[in-house]
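Dear colleague,

Thank you for sharing your sequence with our group. We've completed the structure prediction you requested, and as agreed, I am returning the results in plain text so they can be pasted directly into your records. Please verify that the sequence below matches your submission; if there's any discrepancy, let me know and we will rerun it promptly.
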Amino acid sequence: MQTTIRSAAIFDGVGLHSGAPARMTIRPAPADHGIRFKRTDIRLGNRVVPALWDAVEITPLCTRIVNAAGVSVSTIEHVMAALSGCGIHNALIDLDGPEVPILDGSAAPFVRGIMARGVRHLAASVRAIEVLAPVEVQTKAGWARLEPGQGLTMNFHIDFPDAAIGTQDKRLDLANGAFVRELCDSRTFCRQSDVDSMQKNGLALGGTYENAVVVDGDRVLSPGGLRHADEAVRHKMLDALGDLYTAGAPILGHYTGFKAGHALTNLLLRELFATPEAWRLTLCDERLAAQLPGVGVEREEIPAVA
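Please find the predicted structure tokens below.
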């Protein structure tokens, strides 16, 4: 059955790029509501922004959604990954500014907050997007593909010049709470030279060594070092899960990302929905539902860092 959060979960922090204080509240919502953000700092007009692929404005550094009135919400990928990974299908997310709080740079604080409130089942069946035929998009930077598969599985490859990251590959079946155990505590990462460049251009103003993994050559500058030896590729997979959840329903298929990022994953969803024979909306029976991310998640499995 479809789900929502049992009661409101509140998160306070700052926006990664704006540096502005941000309060976000995930609230329960009825069946078939989906995931929607509401800008509480805006008093007039249409202030609700659906977290959907066709509302995404292509940006390289984060996932930003914009409604028809021009109201936007930025950096939604980590909370979207948490909602997907916890099996939350419906939520209204109040936000008092233009950017989701970055917290520790991972999805773990969102997962802990959601699981502390609990999940409520609703009187409606889950619908999933079943991939029926391969679709792929490519740019000079990399490529991404969706193809038929059991449940949601993911392959990801990254390659960075800094020895602290280097080349990393990971494959993961996201069923049975794997997101919570394996990915949710992996933080966003960047190179020190990129930080300097972004801040000169008015970006990453809320970034610190505590809410991002910052590397310089073979050195990890963030205190405490890495949470996982392959934390970078795990975070890329976390981002991809959040971006895929803007499909509007869980996806049943296999995702491959080769040097992919937010823009490529959104282009991939646009290609999928532009190819009617490549997908169908499927009502989930118990067998299919058991393969979705979020099914079988236990609070005890949340990493202690959150």
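Summary note from our side: The chain has a mean pLDDT of 93.

Kind regards,
the structure core
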